[in-house]
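Can anyone check this?
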Amino acid sequence: MGALGSALFLITQIPIAQGIALDFSLIAVFIVGIYAGPRAGFITGLLAGLIPGIVFGPLSPVGSILTVVALPIGKGLTGLTIGLLAPRFNLKNNNLLGIPLTLISYIPEGLFTCAFFSVLLPLFLGSSIGASAMLYGIMTKAIGEVVIMSLIVSVILGNKAINNFIENYFCKTQQTIK
């Protein structure tokens, strides 16, 4: 699923502005967090964040090597959070809650991103002006992406065939013999 997250990033990368492009890699992280739990969600987030971290970091004209570390950690926080929320709200059986819980699960990553651009990046750039400007664009884009992804997650949760396939893939089930 980490590889799927990376593939979703590469497929959906549509530049919006210099150094800012769409990234739907969190769809895989949300799925794993919901169906396999917080630990698997966190690890998937780390893996799904590597390629975006490289693209938005050293390969970007405005990025830094820090992004290779920070972006996977942020995505990992989202996987961890949705993994903790999903069983508490019986998310697998309630697709309407998929929208708000997906949005809520992004909050730790959003706060981490704000801290990264407000504190850590200015230490390396020497100025907070460029980092602050990037933060506004990135957070606006990220919130829009998460809204779209929350709708996709809700559809996945509401589709019985997809839901059963994912459930059988991630969860140990007992087969009944008739």
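Reply from J.R.: I decoded it. The CA atoms of residues 3 and 31 lie 13 Å apart.
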